[in-house]
Structures are given as structure tokens and as C-alpha cells.
Amino acid sequence: MQNDNDNLPVEPRKPLSPAAQRALAEAEERRKAQPPLNLPEELGGRGGAEPARFGDWEINGRAIDF
To answer: pTM for this structure?
Structure first.
């Protein structure tokens, strides 16, 4: 499935300010310092791609919701 933005030309990004670079570095350090989440495996879940992230709100042609 293609998005509407797939055919748009990619514009180069402007360089980040020093404050933005510091913020990104601090966020990366916080992520590294956090212990990994040990969540239990989901039982009876829907399987496949995460619908909230990929917009797949149907299974076998039927619309689903939470």
C-alpha cells in the first residue's frame, strides 16, 4: 500500500541547531539507561502488524475496533 506522500520529492533537511542536537543526545542517553521492558506475551491477540501504527483496521474484510 502506498501513501500519498510516496511520490513527493525528498527535500534536504536543514541542519539541527546545537540545542536540538543536545536534546537528541540527552534523549538517546535516557533510552540507553532504561532497562528493557519484560512484558508477558499476548495470548489470543490479533497477530500481524500493529493497527495503531499501520492503520490496518480490518481483518478478512471486516472492520474491527478495540
So the answer is: 0.42
